[in-house]
Design a protein that fits this description.
The protein is mainly alpha-helical. About 20% of the residues lie in helices and about 0% in strands. The protein is elongated.
């Protein structure tokens, strides 16, 4: 980023302090905005100071590529249909979050808590979920091509019709309630190559 761009972002960030929260929330959904990351930084500061969290905020359809939200309390947040490529959610609390239809390609989600999250029909290509908790999450029809699921907890997760091509599933934890891409369940061990090897 050039010096001119950094100065422009700093000025915009200061101006956002005078814009009402509801107007900023609507602006962040404008996919053509060049300043969405600055708006997000202002909103994060403003909303987090209300109760110390970002719980329950609705960022549906927002364009937030490369957003930095590591170690954040984002329980029950909605990112439905949002653009979140290269986003950084490592170590965050995303329990009960809604990512249905979202694009998280190349996102970093190491050790994040996605338990009970809805990731239905989301694009999760090349996402790093290593050591994340996806207990009871919905991954129905999700695209997990080339994702890293090393040591992920998938107990109770629903992977019906998920695309697991080349997904790293080393040392994942499953239980009898885990639903596999073919709709079967009731197993505590499985040969993942049936689902991960490209045909």
């Amino acid at each position: 980023m050039s010096l001119f761009q950094r100065i422009g972002q700093a000025i915009q960030l200061r101006l956002y302090h005078f814009i009402p929260t509801n107007l900023l929330m609507s602006q962040i959904r404008d996919r053509n905005s060049r300043f969405n990351l600055s708006i997000m930084a202002s909103l994060r500061e403003r909303l987090a100071h209300q109760d110390g969290t970002l719980t329950g905020v609705d960022w549906s359809s927002a364009s937030l590529d490369k957003v930095l939200l590591s170690a954040s309390k984002l329980s029950k947040v909605s990112f439905a249909n949002a653009q979140l490529t290269d986003a950084y959610f490592a170590y965050s609390d995303l329990t009960h979050a809604n990512f249905e239809g979202a694009n998280l390609a190349d996102a970093h989600c190491r050790e994040a808590d996605f338990s009970h999250a809805n990731l239905t029909a989301s694009n999760l290509q090349r996402v790093n979920f290593s050591r994340a908790d996806l207990t009871n999450s919905l991954l129905v029809s999700a695209n997990l091509t080339d994702a890293n699921f090393w040591r992920v907890n998938l107990c109770g997760a629903n992977l019906t019709d998920a695309n697991l091509s080349n997904t790293n599933l080393t040392d994942v934890t499953i239980d009898e309630s885990t639903i596999f891409p073919d709709g079967t369940s009731g197993k505590t061990t499985i040969d993942w190559s049936v689902f991960t090897d490209r045909n």
